[in-house]
TrEMBL record:
Its EC number is 1.18.1.2. It catalyses: 2 reduced [2Fe-2S]-[ferredoxin] + NADP(+) + H(+) = 2 oxidized [2Fe-2S]-[ferredoxin] + NADPH. Residues 14-121 form the FAD-binding FR-type domain. It holds the Pfam family NAD_binding_1. SUPFAM superfamilies: Ferredoxin reductase-like, C-terminal NADP-linked domain, Riboflavin synthase domain-like. This is ferredoxin--NADP(+) reductase. Its cofactor is FAD. GO terms for molecular function: ferredoxin-NADP+ reductase activity; nucleotide binding. Belongs to the ferredoxin--NADP reductase type 1 family. GO terms for biological process: cellular response to oxidative stress; heme catabolic process. It is an enzyme of class 1 (oxidoreductase). It comes from Parasedimentitalea marina.
């Protein structure tokens, strides 16, 4: 046994799972997106999230550094060979105050263990799917809108996005517009399928073509009449929700009121909810 006479081996700190930043785009003073390399063995389902982050500061007492990690929805689809993330920038946020400064070539930590409930497996078949997002809660839908399965499973895809300002809608608006302009997306998803998308953006604190919280617009019936669809019902409609906590709770209540039941990976049903990341 070669180890018998060896010197005791010093404990080598395990290197965190580093990935390299390949692109960064700043959308507003509070929002940015970035892409990183994808571990070759990492598989995930569109809509899932992973833990990502940076090494924390050195603890002056112990001299040790711990990774500072947060849950981030993967915004890229499962077939993509890179991973995309969409993030807020919180000036005093432990992670995003630093993460917002990353540049191409930098490394971030990514734990390659995707999980989450915003997956097609957690829903039973339906005719129409609603994606309800506020703020950075658009991220998992950026993934699902680029996944062919979304179009195989549904005749109609309604994506609502409520933000405070019009600038905060840009990431999502551009992504949806680009689906039909990108040759590769057109070929992969098909033009007829892309025509299934109905995009319903709203703002609450700045003038835009449609103002108001999606919850209020649904309660009044305005959202349904704008879209020319019947109110949500459990026979035809399915929903995925991703936004701030208050929004999630409110829309969950509304969906239950329409008669939809919450699903999970282990027990698929009619809607699923996930909290958007906040630093
Ligand atoms: P509002 O401006 O009326 O609070 P935030 O940036 O705070 O996460 O909010 C993102 C968007 O979600 C904002 O447009 C905000 O509207 C909206 N919002 C916040 N809470 C709710 C809720 N309970 N129901 C619907 N929309 C909400």
């Amino acid at each position: 046994d070669a180890t018998t006479n060896a010197e005791p081996v010093k404990a080598v700190p395990t290197l965190p799972d580093a990935q390299t930043v390949t692109a960064v785009k700043h959308w507003t003073d509070k929002l940015f997106s970035f892409r990183v390399s994808r571990p070759s063995t990492m598989r995930f389902r569109s809509g899932e999230f992973v833990m990502i982050g940076l090494m924390g500061e050195v603890n002056p007492k112990t001299g040790k550094q711990k990774p500072l990690l947060r849950a981030y929805s993967i915004a890229s689809p499962s077939w993509d060979d890179e991973l995309e993330f969409y993030s807020i920038k919180v000036q005093d946020g432990p992670l995003t105050s630093r993460l917002q400064h990353i540049q191409v070539g930098d490394e971030i930590i990514l734990r390659p263990k995707p999980v989450g409930t915003l997956v097609h497996d957690a829903l039973i078949p339906g005719k129409r799917i609603w994606f309800f997002a506020t703020g950075t809660g658009f991220a998992p839908f950026a993934s699902l809108l680029r996944d062919p399965q979304t179009y195989e499973d549904y005749d109609e895809i309604i994506i609502t996005h409520t933000c405070r300002t019009a600038g905060e809608l840009t990431y999502g608006a551009e992504l949806i517009a680009n689906l039909k302009q990108d040759e590769m997306m057109l070929e992969l998803l098909g033009e007829d399928n892309l025509n299934k998308i109905r995009y319903y953006p709203t703002t609450t604190r700045e003038e835009s073509p449609k103002m108001g919280r999606i919850t209020d617009l649904m309660r009044s019936g305005e959202a349904f009449s704008d879209l020319g669809v019947d109110p949500i019902n459990p026979d035809s409609d399915r929903a995925m929700v991703c936004g701030n906590l208050a929004f999630n709770l409110e829309i969950k209540d509304m969906l239950e009121g329409y008669g939809l039941e919450e699903g999970a990976n282990s027990k698929p049903a009619q809607y699923v909810v996930e909290k958007a990341f906040l630093d």
